[in-house]
Protein backbone atom coordinates (compact mmCIF):
# COMPACT_ATOMS: atom_id res chain seq x y z
CA UNK A 1 0.00 0.00 0.00
CA UNK A 2 1.14 3.52 -0.81
CA UNK A 3 2.46 5.80 1.87
CA UNK A 4 0.28 8.78 2.89
CA UNK A 5 2.87 11.23 1.55
CA UNK A 6 2.46 9.98 -1.99
CA UNK A 7 -1.08 11.15 -2.57
CA UNK A 8 -1.80 14.35 -4.38
CA UNK A 9 -4.20 17.11 -3.41
CA UNK A 10 -5.92 19.52 -5.74
CA UNK A 11 -9.04 21.61 -5.98
CA UNK A 12 -12.26 19.98 -7.21
CA UNK A 13 -13.35 18.96 -9.81
CA UNK A 14 -10.70 16.29 -9.89
CA UNK A 15 -11.56 14.89 -13.31
CA UNK A 16 -11.81 16.53 -16.71
CA UNK A 17 -13.47 15.78 -20.03
CA UNK A 18 -11.09 14.56 -22.75
CA UNK A 19 -11.89 17.47 -25.10
CA UNK A 20 -9.22 20.13 -25.30
CA UNK A 21 -8.79 23.24 -27.42
CA UNK A 22 -5.83 21.57 -29.09
CA UNK A 23 -7.86 18.48 -29.93
CA UNK A 24 -10.73 20.56 -31.31
CA UNK A 25 -8.44 22.59 -33.58
CA UNK A 26 -6.63 19.54 -34.96
CA UNK A 27 -9.89 17.61 -35.44
CA UNK A 28 -11.46 20.48 -37.36
CA UNK A 29 -8.35 20.63 -39.54
CA UNK A 30 -8.52 16.88 -40.15
CA UNK A 31 -12.17 17.03 -41.24
CA UNK A 32 -11.15 19.40 -44.04
CA UNK A 33 -8.98 16.66 -45.57
CA UNK A 34 -11.79 15.09 -47.68
CA UNK A 35 -12.57 18.52 -49.12
CA UNK A 36 -8.86 19.05 -49.70
CA UNK A 37 -8.61 15.71 -51.50
CA UNK A 38 -11.59 16.79 -53.59
CA UNK A 39 -9.80 20.03 -54.48
CA UNK A 40 -6.73 18.08 -55.62
CA UNK A 41 -8.95 15.78 -57.69
CA UNK A 42 -10.66 18.70 -59.43
CA UNK A 43 -7.89 21.30 -59.67
CA UNK A 44 -4.70 19.25 -59.40
CA UNK A 45 -1.73 19.32 -57.09
CA UNK A 46 -1.69 23.13 -57.31
CA UNK A 47 -4.38 23.11 -54.59
CA UNK A 48 -1.82 21.74 -52.18
CA UNK A 49 0.73 24.38 -53.18
CA UNK A 50 -1.69 27.25 -52.49
CA UNK A 51 -2.89 25.80 -49.17
CA UNK A 52 0.63 24.97 -47.97
CA UNK A 53 1.73 28.52 -48.72
CA UNK A 54 -1.16 29.87 -46.62
CA UNK A 55 -0.34 27.53 -43.73
CA UNK A 56 3.36 28.39 -43.97
CA UNK A 57 2.55 32.11 -43.87
CA UNK A 58 0.24 31.68 -40.89
CA UNK A 59 2.70 29.52 -38.95
CA UNK A 60 5.75 31.71 -39.59
CA UNK A 61 4.08 34.87 -38.35
CA UNK A 62 2.68 33.07 -35.30
CA UNK A 63 6.19 31.82 -34.50
CA UNK A 64 7.72 35.23 -35.15
CA UNK A 65 5.36 37.36 -33.08
CA UNK A 66 4.22 35.28 -30.10
CA UNK A 67 6.56 34.97 -27.16
CA UNK A 68 5.38 31.57 -26.10
CA UNK A 69 5.15 28.78 -28.60
CA UNK A 70 1.47 28.86 -29.44
CA UNK A 71 1.79 26.84 -32.64
CA UNK A 72 0.80 23.58 -30.99
CA UNK A 73 -2.70 24.82 -30.17
CA UNK A 74 -3.30 24.26 -33.90
CA UNK A 75 -5.23 27.43 -34.55
CA UNK A 76 -2.59 28.89 -36.90
CA UNK A 77 -2.63 25.75 -39.05
CA UNK A 78 -6.43 25.75 -39.13
CA UNK A 79 -6.55 29.43 -40.11
CA UNK A 80 -4.06 28.85 -42.94
CA UNK A 81 -5.89 25.76 -44.12
CA UNK A 82 -9.27 27.51 -44.16
CA UNK A 83 -7.80 30.50 -45.98
CA UNK A 84 -6.35 28.16 -48.60
CA UNK A 85 -9.77 26.61 -49.12
CA UNK A 86 -11.17 30.02 -50.11
CA UNK A 87 -8.60 30.70 -52.85
CA UNK A 88 -8.48 29.61 -56.50
CA UNK A 89 -5.99 26.88 -57.40
CA UNK A 90 -4.02 29.14 -59.71
CA UNK A 91 -3.36 31.68 -56.95
CA UNK A 92 0.32 32.75 -56.73
CA UNK A 93 2.02 31.12 -53.74
CA UNK A 94 3.71 34.31 -52.55
CA UNK A 95 0.35 36.03 -52.30
CA UNK A 96 -1.09 33.06 -50.40
CA UNK A 97 1.86 33.24 -47.99
CA UNK A 98 1.22 36.94 -47.32
CA UNK A 99 -2.49 36.22 -46.93
CA UNK A 100 -1.80 33.59 -44.27
CA UNK A 101 0.58 35.90 -42.44
CA UNK A 102 -1.92 38.78 -42.57
CA UNK A 103 -4.75 36.53 -41.33
CA UNK A 104 -2.80 35.59 -38.21
CA UNK A 105 -1.05 38.91 -37.57
CA UNK A 106 -3.99 41.27 -38.08
CA UNK A 107 -6.91 38.86 -37.83
CA UNK A 108 -5.85 37.16 -34.62
CA UNK A 109 -2.70 38.41 -32.87
CA UNK A 110 -3.51 42.12 -33.14
CA UNK A 111 -6.58 41.43 -31.00
CA UNK A 112 -4.59 39.60 -28.35
CA UNK A 113 -4.25 36.10 -29.76
CA UNK A 114 -6.36 32.97 -29.51
CA UNK A 115 -9.88 33.60 -28.28
CA UNK A 116 -9.67 37.40 -28.34
CA UNK A 117 -10.29 38.16 -32.02
CA UNK A 118 -13.60 39.63 -33.15
CA UNK A 119 -13.40 38.63 -36.80
CA UNK A 120 -12.74 35.25 -38.35
CA UNK A 121 -8.98 35.36 -39.09
CA UNK A 122 -9.15 33.33 -42.32
CA UNK A 123 -11.79 35.65 -43.72
CA UNK A 124 -9.76 38.72 -42.67
CA UNK A 125 -6.92 37.17 -44.70
CA UNK A 126 -9.20 36.61 -47.64
CA UNK A 127 -10.70 40.10 -47.47
CA UNK A 128 -7.16 41.48 -47.49
CA UNK A 129 -6.20 39.37 -50.51
CA UNK A 130 -9.37 40.37 -52.35
CA UNK A 131 -8.55 44.05 -51.81
CA UNK A 132 -4.86 43.65 -52.65
CA UNK A 133 -4.99 41.24 -55.57
CA UNK A 134 -8.49 41.45 -57.09
CA UNK A 135 -7.46 39.88 -60.40
CA UNK A 136 -5.55 36.87 -59.06
CA UNK A 137 -8.31 35.99 -56.60
CA UNK A 138 -11.00 35.97 -59.29
CA UNK A 139 -9.07 33.97 -61.89
CA UNK A 140 -10.66 30.53 -61.75
CA UNK A 141 -8.87 27.68 -63.54
CA UNK A 142 -11.04 25.21 -65.41
CA UNK A 143 -11.74 21.94 -63.65
CA UNK A 144 -10.26 18.66 -64.83
CA UNK A 145 -6.75 19.52 -65.96
CA UNK A 146 -5.38 16.41 -64.32
CA UNK A 147 -4.04 15.51 -60.89
CA UNK A 148 -0.58 16.83 -61.68
CA UNK A 149 -1.98 20.20 -62.79
CA UNK A 150 0.03 23.19 -61.63
CA UNK A 151 -0.31 26.65 -63.02
CA UNK A 152 2.42 29.07 -64.10
CA UNK A 153 0.89 31.74 -61.88
CA UNK A 154 1.42 29.53 -58.79
CA UNK A 155 5.16 30.11 -59.17
CA UNK A 156 5.00 33.85 -59.86
CA UNK A 157 7.93 35.68 -58.31
CA UNK A 158 7.10 37.90 -55.35
CA UNK A 159 5.36 41.14 -56.37
CA UNK A 160 4.61 39.75 -59.84
CA UNK A 161 1.24 38.63 -61.13
CA UNK A 162 2.70 35.70 -63.01
CA UNK A 163 2.01 34.41 -66.47
CA UNK A 164 -1.69 33.75 -66.86
CA UNK A 165 -1.72 33.63 -70.65
CA UNK A 166 -1.79 29.84 -70.87
CA UNK A 167 -4.33 29.46 -68.10
CA UNK A 168 -7.63 27.96 -69.16
CA UNK A 169 -10.17 29.71 -67.01
CA UNK A 170 -13.82 29.20 -66.42
CA UNK A 171 -16.59 31.25 -64.83
CA UNK A 172 -17.94 30.28 -61.42
CA UNK A 173 -21.60 29.32 -61.06
CA UNK A 174 -22.22 32.53 -59.09
CA UNK A 175 -20.45 34.61 -61.73
CA UNK A 176 -22.59 33.04 -64.45
CA UNK A 177 -25.71 33.70 -62.40
CA UNK A 178 -24.80 37.32 -61.76
CA UNK A 179 -23.48 38.36 -65.15
CA UNK A 180 -25.19 36.00 -67.60
CA UNK A 181 -28.24 34.88 -65.61
CA UNK A 182 -27.39 31.25 -66.20
CA UNK A 183 -28.19 28.95 -63.32
CA UNK A 184 -26.04 25.85 -62.83
CA UNK A 185 -27.79 22.57 -61.98
CA UNK A 186 -27.72 21.32 -58.41
CA UNK A 187 -25.90 18.00 -58.84
CA UNK A 188 -22.56 19.42 -60.11
CA UNK A 189 -22.71 22.04 -57.36
CA UNK A 190 -23.20 19.37 -54.73
CA UNK A 191 -20.72 16.80 -56.01
CA UNK A 192 -18.09 19.14 -57.38
CA UNK A 193 -16.70 19.96 -60.77
CA UNK A 194 -17.76 23.58 -61.01
CA UNK A 195 -15.17 26.34 -61.08
CA UNK A 196 -14.45 28.19 -57.87
CA UNK A 197 -12.24 28.24 -54.81
CA UNK A 198 -10.71 25.01 -53.49
CA UNK A 199 -13.38 24.54 -50.83
CA UNK A 200 -16.27 25.75 -52.95
CA UNK A 201 -16.43 23.16 -55.64
CA UNK A 202 -17.83 20.17 -53.76
CA UNK A 203 -20.43 21.08 -51.15
CA UNK A 204 -20.97 17.38 -50.35
CA UNK A 205 -17.41 16.89 -49.03
CA UNK A 206 -17.71 20.01 -46.88
CA UNK A 207 -21.06 18.82 -45.48
CA UNK A 208 -19.47 15.45 -44.70
CA UNK A 209 -16.74 17.08 -42.61
CA UNK A 210 -19.26 19.38 -40.97
CA UNK A 211 -21.58 16.52 -40.00
CA UNK A 212 -18.70 14.73 -38.30
CA UNK A 213 -17.93 17.86 -36.29
CA UNK A 214 -21.59 18.20 -35.34
CA UNK A 215 -21.59 14.60 -34.17
CA UNK A 216 -18.47 15.30 -32.09
CA UNK A 217 -20.20 18.46 -30.85
CA UNK A 218 -17.22 20.55 -31.92
CA UNK A 219 -19.42 22.91 -33.87
CA UNK A 220 -22.75 24.42 -33.04
CA UNK A 221 -25.33 22.81 -35.37
CA UNK A 222 -27.71 25.70 -34.78
CA UNK A 223 -25.63 28.04 -36.94
CA UNK A 224 -25.59 26.01 -40.21
CA UNK A 225 -29.21 24.97 -39.66
CA UNK A 226 -30.24 28.57 -39.10
CA UNK A 227 -28.44 29.61 -42.29
CA UNK A 228 -30.11 26.87 -44.36
CA UNK A 229 -33.57 27.55 -42.92
CA UNK A 230 -33.26 31.29 -43.42
CA UNK A 231 -32.24 30.80 -47.06
CA UNK A 232 -35.22 28.49 -47.52
CA UNK A 233 -37.57 31.14 -46.10
CA UNK A 234 -36.05 34.25 -47.61
CA UNK A 235 -35.61 33.09 -51.22
CA UNK A 236 -39.34 32.61 -51.94
CA UNK A 237 -39.96 36.05 -50.38
CA UNK A 238 -37.28 37.74 -52.48
CA UNK A 239 -38.63 35.89 -55.48
CA UNK A 240 -41.88 37.83 -55.08
CA UNK A 241 -40.00 41.12 -55.34
CA UNK A 242 -37.69 40.31 -58.21
CA UNK A 243 -38.34 36.92 -59.84
CA UNK A 244 -35.86 37.35 -62.71
CA UNK A 245 -32.86 37.91 -60.41
CA UNK A 246 -33.45 35.37 -57.65
CA UNK A 247 -32.02 31.85 -58.11
CA UNK A 248 -33.46 28.62 -56.71
CA UNK A 249 -32.96 27.54 -53.08
CA UNK A 250 -30.59 24.62 -53.87
CA UNK A 251 -28.50 26.88 -56.10
CA UNK A 252 -28.26 29.42 -53.31
CA UNK A 253 -27.24 26.77 -50.78
CA UNK A 254 -24.71 24.78 -52.72
CA UNK A 255 -23.04 27.32 -54.98
CA UNK A 256 -20.00 29.34 -53.99
CA UNK A 257 -18.76 29.42 -50.44
CA UNK A 258 -22.06 29.13 -48.57
CA UNK A 259 -21.48 25.57 -47.34
CA UNK A 260 -17.86 26.05 -46.25
CA UNK A 261 -18.95 29.37 -44.78
CA UNK A 262 -21.86 27.85 -42.87
CA UNK A 263 -19.97 24.79 -41.65
CA UNK A 264 -16.47 26.11 -41.01
CA UNK A 265 -16.29 29.92 -41.07
CA UNK A 266 -19.49 30.99 -39.35
CA UNK A 267 -19.12 28.30 -36.69
CA UNK A 268 -15.63 29.38 -35.62
CA UNK A 269 -16.23 29.20 -31.87
CA UNK A 270 -14.25 32.33 -31.11
CA UNK A 271 -16.18 34.66 -33.39
CA UNK A 272 -19.67 33.15 -33.06
CA UNK A 273 -22.18 33.82 -30.26
CA UNK A 274 -21.98 32.02 -26.92
CA UNK A 275 -25.69 31.51 -26.46
CA UNK A 276 -28.15 29.21 -28.26
CA UNK A 277 -30.55 32.00 -29.07
CA UNK A 278 -27.60 34.05 -30.30
CA UNK A 279 -26.58 31.29 -32.70
CA UNK A 280 -30.00 31.31 -34.36
CA UNK A 281 -29.95 35.10 -34.82
CA UNK A 282 -26.37 35.05 -36.07
CA UNK A 283 -27.07 32.35 -38.68
CA UNK A 284 -30.19 34.16 -39.87
CA UNK A 285 -28.18 37.37 -40.24
CA UNK A 286 -25.47 35.67 -42.28
CA UNK A 287 -27.97 34.03 -44.62
CA UNK A 288 -29.92 37.25 -45.15
CA UNK A 289 -26.82 39.34 -45.84
CA UNK A 290 -25.42 36.68 -48.18
CA UNK A 291 -28.65 36.56 -50.17
CA UNK A 292 -28.84 40.36 -50.41
CA UNK A 293 -25.21 40.73 -51.53
CA UNK A 294 -25.46 37.89 -54.04
CA UNK A 295 -28.68 39.15 -55.59
CA UNK A 296 -28.33 42.93 -55.46
CA UNK A 297 -24.67 43.56 -54.56
CA UNK A 298 -21.83 44.33 -56.94
CA UNK A 299 -19.97 41.12 -56.15
CA UNK A 300 -21.15 37.67 -57.24
CA UNK A 301 -20.31 36.18 -53.81
CA UNK A 302 -21.29 37.60 -50.43
CA UNK A 303 -20.62 34.89 -47.84
CA UNK A 304 -17.32 36.38 -46.69
CA UNK A 305 -18.63 39.88 -46.03
CA UNK A 306 -21.85 38.52 -44.54
CA UNK A 307 -19.89 36.52 -41.96
CA UNK A 308 -17.48 39.36 -41.20
CA UNK A 309 -20.37 41.79 -40.70
CA UNK A 310 -22.19 39.39 -38.41
CA UNK A 311 -18.91 38.76 -36.49
CA UNK A 312 -18.94 42.47 -35.68
CA UNK A 313 -22.35 42.29 -33.97
CA UNK A 314 -21.65 39.11 -31.99
CA UNK A 315 -20.84 41.02 -28.76
CA UNK A 316 -24.23 42.74 -28.99
CA UNK A 317 -25.99 39.44 -29.73
CA UNK A 318 -24.29 37.89 -26.71
CA UNK A 319 -25.38 40.70 -24.45
CA UNK A 320 -29.00 40.58 -25.64
CA UNK A 321 -29.37 36.81 -25.39
CA UNK A 322 -27.96 36.05 -21.94
CA UNK A 323 -29.47 32.84 -20.57
CA UNK A 324 -32.19 33.15 -17.93
CA UNK A 325 -30.64 32.20 -14.62
CA UNK A 326 -32.50 29.50 -12.70
CA UNK A 327 -34.71 31.04 -10.00
CA UNK A 328 -34.37 34.60 -11.27
CA UNK A 329 -37.66 36.20 -12.22
CA UNK A 330 -37.82 38.30 -15.35
CA UNK A 331 -38.50 42.00 -14.89
CA UNK A 332 -41.92 41.75 -16.44
CA UNK A 333 -43.03 38.95 -14.12
CA UNK A 334 -41.67 40.79 -11.12
CA UNK A 335 -43.78 43.81 -12.02
CA UNK A 336 -46.83 41.59 -12.44
CA UNK A 337 -46.29 40.23 -8.93
CA UNK A 338 -45.95 43.69 -7.39
CA UNK B 1 -36.24 29.36 -4.12
CA UNK B 2 -35.33 32.89 -5.29
CA UNK B 3 -31.99 33.61 -6.91
CA UNK B 4 -29.15 34.15 -4.45
CA UNK B 5 -31.13 32.67 -1.54
CA UNK B 6 -30.96 29.38 0.28
CA UNK B 7 -33.88 26.98 0.87
CA UNK B 8 -33.91 28.14 4.53
CA UNK B 9 -35.02 31.59 3.36
CA UNK B 10 -38.35 30.18 2.22
CA UNK B 11 -38.78 28.01 5.31
CA UNK B 12 -37.70 24.70 3.76
CA UNK B 13 -34.85 22.34 4.53
CA UNK B 14 -33.64 19.91 1.90
CA UNK B 15 -32.09 16.72 3.25
CA UNK B 16 -31.08 13.43 1.73
CA UNK B 17 -32.78 10.18 2.62
CA UNK B 18 -29.86 8.84 4.65
CA UNK B 19 -29.93 11.82 7.00
CA UNK B 20 -33.67 11.48 7.56
CA UNK B 21 -33.27 7.76 8.27
CA UNK B 22 -30.56 8.57 10.82
CA UNK B 23 -32.79 11.07 12.59
CA UNK B 24 -35.57 8.49 12.74
CA UNK B 25 -33.16 5.97 14.22
CA UNK B 26 -32.07 8.39 16.93
CA UNK B 27 -35.70 8.88 17.92
CA UNK B 28 -36.44 5.16 17.85
CA UNK B 29 -33.37 3.80 19.64
CA UNK B 30 -31.88 6.83 21.36
CA UNK B 31 -28.52 5.80 19.92
CA UNK B 32 -26.64 8.80 18.46
CA UNK B 33 -24.83 8.72 15.13
CA UNK B 34 -21.85 6.47 15.80
CA UNK B 35 -21.51 4.71 12.50
CA UNK B 36 -22.41 5.33 8.88
CA UNK B 37 -22.39 3.69 5.50
CA UNK B 38 -19.50 4.85 3.36
CA UNK B 39 -18.92 4.04 -0.28
CA UNK B 40 -15.25 3.37 -0.96
CA UNK B 41 -14.76 3.28 -4.69
CA UNK B 42 -12.84 4.55 -7.73
CA UNK B 43 -10.34 2.86 -10.02
CA UNK B 44 -7.61 3.39 -7.43
CA UNK B 45 -9.20 0.90 -4.99
CA UNK B 46 -8.66 -2.83 -5.45
CA UNK B 47 -12.03 -4.07 -4.10
CA UNK B 48 -14.57 -1.20 -4.02
CA UNK B 49 -17.55 -1.59 -1.72
CA UNK B 50 -20.07 -0.09 0.67
CA UNK B 51 -18.90 -0.30 4.28
CA UNK B 52 -20.64 0.32 7.58
CA UNK B 53 -17.89 2.03 9.55
CA UNK B 54 -17.76 3.73 12.97
CA UNK B 55 -17.40 7.51 12.76
CA UNK B 56 -13.76 8.38 13.39
CA UNK B 57 -12.28 5.47 11.44
CA UNK B 58 -9.15 6.53 9.60
CA UNK B 59 -9.61 6.46 5.85
CA UNK B 60 -6.51 4.28 5.38
CA UNK B 61 -8.17 1.53 7.44
CA UNK B 62 -11.31 1.72 5.29
CA UNK B 63 -9.20 1.52 2.14
CA UNK B 64 -7.14 -1.34 3.56
CA UNK B 65 -10.39 -3.24 4.18
CA UNK B 66 -11.19 -2.74 0.49
CA UNK B 67 -7.95 -4.37 -0.62
CA UNK B 68 -5.77 -1.26 -0.48
CA UNK B 69 -4.72 1.23 -3.11
CA UNK B 70 -3.60 0.23 -6.58
CA UNK B 71 -0.15 1.15 -7.85
CA UNK B 72 -1.33 4.10 -9.93
CA UNK B 73 -3.61 5.58 -7.24
CA UNK B 74 -3.09 9.32 -7.28
CA UNK B 75 -5.47 11.08 -4.95
CA UNK B 76 -8.02 10.24 -2.25
CA UNK B 77 -11.16 12.36 -2.37
CA UNK B 78 -13.94 12.65 0.22
CA UNK B 79 -17.18 13.13 -1.69
CA UNK B 80 -17.56 12.82 -5.45
CA UNK B 81 -15.00 13.42 -8.16
CA UNK B 82 -16.66 16.71 -9.14
CA UNK B 83 -17.11 18.49 -5.80
CA UNK B 84 -15.23 16.34 -3.32
CA UNK B 85 -12.26 17.42 -1.25
CA UNK B 86 -8.90 15.78 -1.81
CA UNK B 87 -7.36 14.56 1.44
CA UNK B 88 -3.76 15.47 2.19
CA UNK B 89 -3.32 12.66 4.69
CA UNK B 90 -4.65 9.10 4.72
CA UNK B 91 -5.01 9.27 8.49
CA UNK B 92 -7.95 11.64 7.98
CA UNK B 93 -10.99 10.35 9.88
CA UNK B 94 -14.30 9.45 8.32
CA UNK B 95 -16.76 11.86 9.87
CA UNK B 96 -20.54 11.98 10.01
CA UNK B 97 -20.68 13.88 6.69
CA UNK B 98 -18.45 11.54 4.72
CA UNK B 99 -20.71 9.61 2.38
CA UNK B 100 -18.10 8.41 -0.05
CA UNK B 101 -14.39 8.02 -0.62
CA UNK B 102 -13.19 8.07 -4.22
CA UNK B 103 -9.67 7.10 -5.14
CA UNK B 104 -8.62 8.46 -8.52
CA UNK B 105 -5.71 7.28 -10.61
CA UNK B 106 -3.08 9.00 -12.71
CA UNK B 107 -5.12 8.49 -15.88
CA UNK B 108 -7.96 10.58 -14.51
CA UNK B 109 -6.00 13.40 -12.97
CA UNK B 110 -4.33 14.89 -15.99
CA UNK B 111 -2.58 18.15 -15.39
CA UNK B 112 -3.12 20.17 -18.54
CA UNK B 113 -2.02 23.50 -19.86
CA UNK B 114 -4.74 26.17 -19.66
CA UNK B 115 -5.49 27.93 -22.93
CA UNK B 116 -7.34 31.22 -23.37
CA UNK B 117 -11.15 31.06 -23.54
CA UNK B 118 -12.24 30.34 -27.11
CA UNK B 119 -15.90 31.21 -26.45
CA UNK B 120 -17.12 27.75 -27.43
CA UNK B 121 -20.10 27.99 -25.09
CA UNK B 122 -19.73 24.46 -23.68
CA UNK B 123 -19.81 25.86 -20.14
CA UNK B 124 -23.13 27.61 -20.80
CA UNK B 125 -24.53 24.29 -21.96
CA UNK B 126 -23.18 22.48 -18.92
CA UNK B 127 -24.27 24.94 -16.21
CA UNK B 128 -27.32 23.50 -14.38
CA UNK B 129 -28.55 26.93 -13.26
CA UNK B 130 -27.99 28.63 -16.64
CA UNK B 131 -25.21 30.99 -15.62
CA UNK B 132 -22.63 32.32 -18.09
CA UNK B 133 -19.41 30.77 -16.70
CA UNK B 134 -17.42 32.14 -19.63
CA UNK B 135 -18.19 35.72 -18.63
CA UNK B 136 -17.84 34.99 -14.91
CA UNK B 137 -14.44 33.46 -15.63
CA UNK B 138 -13.26 36.54 -17.46
CA UNK B 139 -14.41 38.76 -14.59
CA UNK B 140 -12.67 36.46 -12.10
CA UNK B 141 -9.42 36.59 -14.05
CA UNK B 142 -9.63 40.38 -14.01
CA UNK B 143 -10.25 40.29 -10.24
CA UNK B 144 -13.63 42.02 -10.66
CA UNK B 145 -15.32 39.98 -7.93
CA UNK B 146 -17.94 42.62 -7.12
CA UNK B 147 -19.11 42.64 -10.75
CA UNK B 148 -19.47 38.87 -10.63
CA UNK B 149 -22.33 39.27 -8.14
CA UNK B 150 -24.30 41.08 -10.84
CA UNK B 151 -23.87 37.98 -13.01
CA UNK B 152 -25.38 35.82 -10.26
CA UNK B 153 -22.22 34.34 -8.79
CA UNK B 154 -24.30 33.60 -5.68
CA UNK B 155 -26.35 31.08 -7.68
CA UNK B 156 -23.25 29.07 -8.57
CA UNK B 157 -23.14 25.96 -6.40
CA UNK B 158 -19.61 25.01 -7.46
CA UNK B 159 -20.77 21.78 -9.10
CA UNK B 160 -17.66 21.85 -11.30
CA UNK B 161 -19.45 21.06 -14.56
CA UNK B 162 -18.00 24.12 -16.33
CA UNK B 163 -14.45 23.22 -15.36
CA UNK B 164 -15.08 19.64 -16.45
CA UNK B 165 -16.20 20.50 -19.99
CA UNK B 166 -13.90 23.49 -20.64
CA UNK B 167 -11.70 22.51 -23.61
CA UNK B 168 -9.26 25.29 -22.71
CA UNK B 169 -8.98 23.74 -19.25
CA UNK B 170 -9.71 27.02 -17.48
CA UNK B 171 -10.20 26.36 -13.73
CA UNK B 172 -13.62 28.05 -13.76
CA UNK B 173 -15.31 26.64 -10.68
CA UNK B 174 -12.05 26.89 -8.74
CA UNK B 175 -11.93 30.60 -9.54
CA UNK B 176 -15.58 31.01 -8.57
CA UNK B 177 -14.92 29.35 -5.26
CA UNK B 178 -12.07 31.82 -4.67
CA UNK B 179 -14.28 34.75 -5.67
CA UNK B 180 -17.03 33.63 -3.30
CA UNK B 181 -14.51 33.41 -0.47
CA UNK B 182 -13.13 36.85 -1.29
CA UNK B 183 -16.60 38.34 -1.31
CA UNK B 184 -17.49 36.73 2.03
CA UNK B 185 -14.38 38.05 3.79
CA UNK B 186 -15.32 41.73 4.32
CA UNK B 187 -18.76 40.73 5.56
CA UNK B 188 -17.36 38.48 8.29
CA UNK B 189 -14.94 41.20 9.32
CA UNK B 190 -17.82 43.61 9.90
CA UNK B 191 -19.68 41.15 12.11
CA UNK B 192 -16.55 40.58 14.19
CA UNK B 193 -16.14 44.32 14.81
CA UNK B 194 -19.80 44.78 15.70
Main features:
heterodimer; A: 338 residues; mainly alpha; 15 helices; globular; B: 5 strands; disordered C terminus
What profile does the largest beta sheet of chain B have?
5 strands, mixed
* Proportion of residues in extended strands of chain A: under 5%
Q: How many helices of chain B in DSSP terms?
A: 7
Q: List unreliable stretches of 5+ residues of chain B.
A: 190-194
CA-CA gap between termini of chain B: 30 Å
Largest sheet of chain A: none
Order of helix and strand elements from N to C terminus of chain B:
HEEHEEEHHHHH
Structural class of chain B: alpha+beta
Largest interface: A-B, 41 and 61 residues
Which whole number gives the mean pLDDT of chain B? 84
- Strand elements of chain A, count: 0
Rg of chain A to the nearest angstrom? 22 Å
Strand order of the largest sheet of chain B: 2-1-5-3-4
| Helix share, percent of chain A | 40-55%
How would you explain this protein's 3D organization?
The complex is a heterodimer of chains A (338) and B (194). By secondary structure, chain A is mainly α. In chain A, 55% of the residues lie in helices and 0% in strands. Chain A is built from 15 helices and no strands. In chain A, helix 4 (75-85) crosses helix 6 (121-132) and helix 10 runs parallel beside helix 13 (276-296). Chain A is globular and about 65 Å long. The mean pLDDT of chain A is 86. Chain B has a five-stranded mixed β-sheet with strand order 2-1-5-3-4, covered by helices on one side. Chain B is globular and about 50 Å long. Chain B is built from seven helices and five strands, in the order αββαβββααααα. In chain B, helix 4 (133-141) crosses helix 7 (172-193). Chain B is 35% helix and 14% strand. Chain B is an alpha+beta fold and 194 residues long. Chain B has helices at residues 17-29, 59-65, 122-126, 133-141, 145-150, 161-165, 172-193, and strands at residues 35-41, 49-54, 73-78, 85-86, 100-105. Classes of the chains: A mainly alpha (338), B alpha+beta (194). Chains A and B meet through helix 1 of A and helix 2, strand 3, strand 4, helix 6 and helix 7 of B.
Amino acid sequence: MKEPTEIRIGASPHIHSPDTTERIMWTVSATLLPAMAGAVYFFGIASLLVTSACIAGAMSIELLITRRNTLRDGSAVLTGLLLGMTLPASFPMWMAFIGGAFAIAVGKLAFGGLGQNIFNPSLIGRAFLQAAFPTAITTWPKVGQGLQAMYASNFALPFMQGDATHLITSATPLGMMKFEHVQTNTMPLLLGGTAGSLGETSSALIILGGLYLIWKRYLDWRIPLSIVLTIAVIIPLLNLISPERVPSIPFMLFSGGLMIGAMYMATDVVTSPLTHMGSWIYGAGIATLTALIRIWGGLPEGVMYAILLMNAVVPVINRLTQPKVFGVESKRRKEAHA
Amino acid sequence: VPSGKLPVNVGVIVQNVGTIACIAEIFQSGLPLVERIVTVTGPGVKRPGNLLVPVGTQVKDAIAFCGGLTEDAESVVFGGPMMGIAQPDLRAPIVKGTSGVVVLTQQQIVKRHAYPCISCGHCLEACPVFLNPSRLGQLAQAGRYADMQGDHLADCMLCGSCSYVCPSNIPLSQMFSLAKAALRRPKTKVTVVV
